[in-house]
Structure formats: structure tokens, C-alpha cells
Amino acid sequence: MKITYLGHSAFEINNILVDPFLVMCPDYRPEGITDIFVTHAHGDHLGSAIEISKKTGATITAIFELANYCTAQGAIANGIGLGGWINYRWGRTIAVPAFHSSSIDYKFNGGCPCGFVFEIDGKTIYHAGDTALTSEMKTIRELYQPDIVMLPIGGHYTMDIEHAVKASEWLEANTIIPMHYNTFEVINANVKDFERQIRELGKTPLVLGINQSIEI
User: φ, ψ for residue 17 (rounded to 5)?
Assistant: First the structure.
């Protein structure tokens, strides 16, 4: 499995995209992308999803209200809710709760925010989306036993380092990838401090540079 960090909360995992807000990776080319997942409607997560879908034919999977908006804008979209597995050729995913807000252009209802659990190539990945620390993460650990988790650490709008470290402890995953930090001044975070605390838990912090890929 190949994971590429595209900045903020955006990742390419094999041939899928998650939260493709690409201001930190403006030269990115979505070659071979088949599916796009959007955790919520805020512009720094919906990002270029609609444009990429229209250009490539990739399907956007998102909560029902947001998916309907994407369809109305000419994209191909699959509207879902929380709590049921969705099957794909490459594996399956389930939308799980996130504690945040969700609005389209900061004006209209974007449905509920979510995270995604992916099963791909024998690995389980949890992308938390924008969320506070929540005891739902204990349920995610119990049900899905993620191998890799992607957690926001920037604070202000989401959990900060302190709470991301606690989330890592609850989730019991071995590999922790920080996201949603240092894009804007208000979410600046000391990633070295995050790395130190994750190592103290006996886990592996995986801090990726922009457009950096890793094979797992």
C-alpha cells in the first residue's frame, strides 16, 4: 500500500483520495484516481473534489447532503450515512462519527461530519477527519483495530497534540500520522513534541512531508 501526504488532511492511498484540499501541493495530478472521500463540507476538506471528479470520473463518497451538493455541481457522488460498510473493488470503507461541524460555503447544511475507516490491502486505516477527542475512538479500536491512524493535531478547530496523543493511546494503533496542522497560523503545532509523546507510548509517529510517499 502506498500512502502519499498532500498537505493539511489530504492523502492519496493507492488510487483513492481523501479530503483533497491541495493548496500545499498545487502541482498534484490525480492520475489513476478512482474514488474520492470527503469527511465534511468545509472548503479545506472538500477542496478540489468536485473538479477532480468532473475531470477524471472518480466518484466522491460523502455524507448524503454533501454528496447531493456535489452531484448538483456536476460531480459523480455516492451519498452515504454513518455505520454501514461500503464495498469497492479495492476493499471497503465505513463512515464513523466525528465531532465537528459541516457547512457548504459556510452557509448551507453539509450533513454531519465523519471520519472513515478503510480496509485496503490487508491493512485498516482510520482517517479521523476534523474531530475533537471522543470516546467513539474506543469503539473504533474495539470494532476495527486500525493499523494506521491519521489524526488532526493543530488544535483550535480540532483536537490538539495533547488530545491526539490520548486518542492514539485509546486507538491502540502502531502507526500514527499527524495531519491538519501548520497550514494556517491558528493551527500551528510543534510536531517534534507530538513525535516525542507518541514514541513515549511505544508507537511509531509517521510525519510525512508534503507530497512524500511511503509504502506500508
Answer: -115, 145
Torsional sign, CA 38, 121, 209, 174: positive
What's the rounded Cα separation, in Å, for the pair 26 and 6?
9
Q: Residue 21 is which amino acid?
A: F
Rounded Cα distance between 102 and 59, Å, is 20
Q: Which helix (H) or strand (E) holds 124?
A: strand 123-127
Q: Are 76 and 52 in contact (CB under 8 A)?
A: no
Question: pTM here?
Answer: 0.97
Q: What is the pLDDT of residues 123-179, one digit of tens each?
A: 999 999 999 999 999 999 999 999 999 999 999 999 999 999 999 999 999 999 999
Counting DSSP H helices and E strands in the chain, the numbers are: 6, 16
Whole-number Å distance between alpha carbons of 52 and 65:
19
Is-contact 181 190, C-beta < 8 A? no
Side-chain-side CA neighbours of 216 within 13 Å: the count stands at 22
